[in-house]
Amino acid sequence: GPVPLQVDSSWRRERILHVPLCKEDCEEWWEDCKDFVTCKQDWHKGWNWATGTNRCPWGSMCRPFSEVFPQPRDLCEKIWSHSYKYTTERRGSGRCIQMWFDPALGNPNVAVAKYYAWRKRSSPAGVESVVPESDQALCALPWSVLVLLPLALVLLPEVTRGCGSRGWGSL
C-alpha cells in the first residue's frame, strides 16, 4: 500500500512508494502527454542543475512520451521512481487515488487513505505486502498526504510545457 519510506537525502527525508493510481487517471495522464517530449524516464534524479533549475542531462535527447513510456503503466510507475502504482481499480472504488475530481462533491481520496490505513492496522505484521526499496523504517501515510496528493502533483517543478488540459502543464 502507499507508505512513505524514510530516506536519507539532502533534499528530502521521506518519499511515497506504490501509491495506487486509478486506471482512468493514469490512462488519461498518458493520453494527454503521449505526444509531448521528455529527455528522461525517471524524473526523481539525474537532472542537470548547473543553471539552478532542472535541465535535461548533458547528451540526453528529447523523445515523445509515447517512446519513453510506451504504455500508461510505464508513465505512472516509472516517471517518479515507483512512487505511484498503476492499478486496474476504477474511480470511486475507494482503492485508488483519483487525480481529478470536483472538490464541491468531496475528496474521494479520503476514503482511499482510510482504506489503506485500516488495511495496514488489520494486517498481521501491521504492514502491507509491499517490499520496500530498502530495509529502512516505514510508517503509515497520513490521510492528509493522500488528500493533498493531486494538488502536489500539479505544483511539481516545470520540466516541459503544455502537457494536457487537466493540470499537468508542468510535466
TrEMBL record:
Coiled coil: none annotated. It comes from the Eukaryota. GO terms for molecular function: signaling receptor activity. One of its GO terms (cellular component) is external side of plasma membrane. Keywords: Disulfide bond, Signal. Residues 11-98 form the Folate receptor-like domain. Belongs to the folate receptor family. This is FOLR1 protein. It comes from Neodrepanis coruscans (wattled asity). The gene is Folr1_1.
